[in-house]
Each structure stands twice: as C-alpha cells, then as structure tokens.
Q: What sequence folds into this?
C-alpha cells in the first residue's frame, strides 16, 4: 500500500503534507504534488494534514490513474520536504471539479531552489 495525491491538489498545492512526512517522499510539480510510491512507508500522517483532502490510500477504488501519475512524475520532479505558501488562488480552486484540465507536467522548484549561497566566514576582528 502507498498513499496517492489526487486531482484536488491541482492548483491548490497547500504543502501541509510535506512537512509531516517522515521519509520525504513528496515531489513537486508546477501546480501539484505527488508521492513516490516506492518511498512512501504507508504511515498515513500526510492524509489528515491535506486541507484539500487530496491524499488517499491506494486501496481506495478508482485511483489507478493517480497512482500511475504519482509514480511517473515522482521520478522527474524535484523532492520537496519544506512547506512553502500555497498559491494565491489555492482556496478558489479547492474543491473545483474537473481540475485535471489544469494539470501541468512541468516540475516545481523543489527544496533546492530555495537554498541560499553559503555564508562566508566572518572577518577576523581587527587587532588593536
């Protein structure tokens, strides 16, 4: 068993789920998240954290399409483990039917895009 991100995540991408995942198995697309099915340990802590109620156990009927999509894009999208703000229009899209028309295969920024350059060491104190 694994957990699967489904249609209601599209254009919502709240990210509450990523910060509770103990194995960092979420991957970020431009407008949704997916779970890597081979990395998910089936703990289920992400499911109740999703404000969009877009995460389900793969044992629920009718999720084959979403399991395939999660597996495919988890291989190419960047990993995400740090929560960021949801898109500005997330609440407006939450619960909107037929959101697959908005799906983007483009990758998101992942955690790597937010890394900052290393801070240089401090200058030595001037000698008196």
A:
């Amino acid at each position: 068993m694994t957990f699967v991100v489904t249609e209601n995540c599209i254009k919502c991408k709240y990210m509450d789920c990523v910060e509770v995942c103990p194995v960092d198995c979420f991957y970020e697309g431009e407008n949704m998240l997916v779970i890597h099915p081979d990395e998910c340990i089936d703990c289920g802590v992400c499911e109740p954290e999703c404000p969009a109620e877009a995460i389900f156990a793969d044992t629920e009927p009718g999720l084959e399409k979403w399991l395939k999509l999660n597996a495919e894009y988890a291989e190419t999208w960047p990993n995400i483990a740090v929560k960021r703000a949801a898109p500005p229009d997330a609440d407006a899209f939450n619960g909107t039917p037929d959101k697959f028309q908005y799906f983007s295969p483009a990758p998101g920024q992942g955690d790597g895009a937010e890394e900052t350059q290393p801070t240089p060491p401090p200058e030595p104190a001037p000698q008196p």
In short: The domain at 3-84 is CATH 3.30.70.20 (Alpha-Beta Plaits).
